[in-house]
Structures are given as C-alpha cells and as structure tokens.
C-alpha cells in the first residue's frame, strides 16, 4: 500500500504578482499581492478601479513586456506602450490578455431589428443591407453602374 505524498503540489508553491502604488485613472496608491496560477476575481461597484488595476496596470505592463520580445522591425509596426503609473510591479510574466469587449461582430443590442435590405439601383437585383456591400456583390450583367 502506497503512502500519500506529503510534498505540496507544484501549483501550491506559487509566486506572487506584487503591485505597489498603482495610480492609473482613479487608482490612488493601490497596493496588492496576487497569487500566480490561481483564478482571481475582481469585484466592486462601478468606478471602483477594477479595470484600471487589471487592464490599465497589470495587463498593460504584461503587453508591453510581450512587445519588447519582438524584433525591432516588428516593433516598428506596433503602438508604443508607456509604462503604467506604478511604484513597483514585481513577479509579472508575459500573458495573453482577453479584453472585456462583447463577443461577435454585431455591436447592436439583441433587441434591435435587423437592417432592411435595400437595392443600389432600380435595375440591380442584388439586395443588401447597405449600399456599400451591394456594390461589392453586384456584377456588370446585373447592374448598369
């Protein structure tokens, strides 16, 4: 019979991300320690600085660190990111940032009706939601324009 291991699991010997003196947007000298390799949830009322801490400070510095790993040629095509307003940001590693934008390509709320199809001209048979996309789909044989 095997004896259960008393050694801690490798994920339990985690490090910390330390933020001291964060001053992005409405943050005023916020200091926090976050465990790595753990799900951390930020909650609070609107305007309390959740997004400023996560996206404006931690994610911004992580993205800047990733951008520094690219060649000078590639960096020339990327936006220049400044360091966030913070006294100390320690233990941070590069990460993939998932933004808080809505999923999908339609920014309209689900209750909005779909656009009414229109025609680019009287002799065109291509119906479209907009004049621009109708121009892309029509051919010379279906439209005189």
UniProtKB/TrEMBL annotation:
One of its GO terms (cellular component) is cytoplasm. It comes from Phytohabitans rumicis. The lineage of its organism: Bacteria, Bacillati, Actinomycetota, Actinomycetes, Micromonosporales. It is found in: Cytoplasm. Residues 107-117 have a biased composition (Pro residues). Keywords: ATP-binding, Cytoplasm, DNA damage, DNA excision, DNA repair, DNA-binding, Excision nuclease, Nucleotide-binding, Repeat. The keyword Transport does not apply. Residues 100-145 are annotated as: Disordered. It comes from the Bacteria. GO terms for molecular function: ATP binding; DNA binding; nuclease activity. InterPro entries: P-loop_NTPase. The keyword Nucleotide-binding applies. This is UvrABC system protein A. One of its GO terms (biological process) is DNA repair. Residues 118-132 have a biased composition (Low complexity). Belongs to the ABC transporter superfamily. UvrA family. Its main location: cytoplasm.
């Amino acid at each position: 019979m095997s004896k259960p291991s008393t050694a801690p699991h490798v994920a339990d010997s985690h490090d910390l991300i330390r933020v001291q003196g964060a001053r992005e947007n409405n943050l005023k000298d916020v200091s926090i320690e976050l465990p790595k390799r753990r799900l951390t949830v930020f909650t609070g009322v609107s305007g309390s600085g959740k997004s400023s801490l996560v996206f404006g400070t931690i994610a911004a510095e992580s993205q800047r660190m990733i951008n520094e790993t690219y060649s000078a040629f590639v960096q020339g095509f990327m936006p220049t990111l400044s360091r966030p307003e913070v006294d100390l940001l320690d233990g941070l590693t590069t990460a993939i940032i998932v933004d808080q934008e809505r999923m999908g390509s339609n920014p309209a709320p689900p209750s909005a009706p779909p656009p009414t199809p229109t025609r680019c001209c009287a002799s065109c048979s291509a119906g479209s939601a907009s004049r621009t996309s109708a121009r892309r789909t029509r051919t010379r044989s279906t439209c005189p324009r």
